[in-house]
């Protein structure tokens, strides 16, 4: 049965993606959003196993170019993504990769925030100094993606209480922690996530 899509969302065909973590299927979800009279196009990605159980493991991961692609040690994003892909390959499920860099402020502003962090500000203080909230991410597309795959229950791989609260409004979930190794470069970053943002670390 063909799904009826809202005009603001397009869905690509599904393709194979062999990776060092295993064989996956990928599909892109193109979302058009209008914010303050400006229209933006965000191309999200679902990376999934061939089969999905009734209660799959799901990681909702926001893009972090510096961590995911350049393996930056300033954050835990790349390590979390790699761990999620390993777990999902083993236990079956999906990564929903959202194109909202820098907690939703974009790459340009994220680099400016990094520069402020070099002067001693933490991640929250840097975002606020640039005129943003501590976290500008929007998770509304997640409901559409979970509905697209007819998922009613998930095991959510996260430490973020905001995700738990947001997704609990439209899917039955249980949380599974995702804990990666700390290093000297990201220790303070992780402390700020725990103390100021309430992450379950």
UniProtKB/TrEMBL annotation:
Residues holding GTP: 59-63, 101-103, 123, 158, 163
CDD domains in UniProt: GTP_cyclohydro2
GTP cyclohydrolase II domain sequence ranges: 14-170
InterPro entries: GTP_cyclohydro_II, RibA, RibA-like_sf
Class of enzymatic activity (EC top level): hydrolase
Reactions the enzyme catalyzes: GTP + 4 H2O = 2,5-diamino-6-hydroxy-4-(5-phosphoribosylamino)-pyrimidine + formate + 2 phosphate + 3 H(+)
Residues binding Zn(2+): 64, 75, 77
Identification of the protein by name: GTP cyclohydrolase-2
Bound cofactor: record note: Binds 1 zinc ion per subunit.
HAMAP family per record: RibA (MF_00179)
EC number: 3.5.4.25
Molecular function in Gene Ontology: GTP cyclohydrolase II activity
SUPFAM superfamilies: RibA-like (SSF142695)
Chain segments annotated as coiled-coil in the UniProt record: none
Pathway: Cofactor biosynthesis; riboflavin biosynthesis; 5-amino-6-(D-ribitylamino)uracil from GTP: step 1/4
Cofactor or coenzyme needed: Zn(2+)
Gene3D superfamilies linked: GTP cyclohydrolase II (3.40.50.10990)
Keyword GTP-binding: yes
């Amino acid at each position: 049965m063909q799904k009826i899509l809202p005009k603001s969302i397009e869905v690509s065909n599904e393709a194979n993606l062999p990776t060092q973590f295993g064989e996956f299927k990928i599909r892109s979800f193109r979302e058009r959003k209008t914010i303050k009279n400006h229209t933006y196009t965000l191309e999200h990605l679902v990376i999934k196993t061939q089969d999905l159980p009734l209660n799959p493991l799901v990681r909702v991961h926001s893009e972090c170019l510096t961590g995911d692609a350049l393996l930056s040690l300033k954050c835990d994003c790349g390590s979390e993504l790699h761990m999620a892909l390993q777990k999902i390959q083993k236990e079956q499920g999906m990564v929903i990769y959202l194109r909202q860099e820098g907690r939703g402020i974009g790459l340009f502003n994220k680099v400016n925030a990094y520069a402020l962090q070099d002067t001693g500000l933490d991640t929250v203080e840097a975002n606020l100094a640039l005129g943003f909230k501590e976290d500008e991410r929007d998770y509304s597309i997640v409901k559409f993606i979970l509905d697209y795959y007819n998922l009613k229950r998930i095991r959510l791989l996260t430490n973020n209480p905001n995700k738990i609260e947001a997704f609990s409004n439209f899917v039955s979930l249980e949380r599974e922690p995702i804990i990666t190794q700390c290093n000297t470069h990201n220790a303070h970053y992780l402390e700020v996530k725990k103390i100021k943002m309430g992450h379950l670390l």
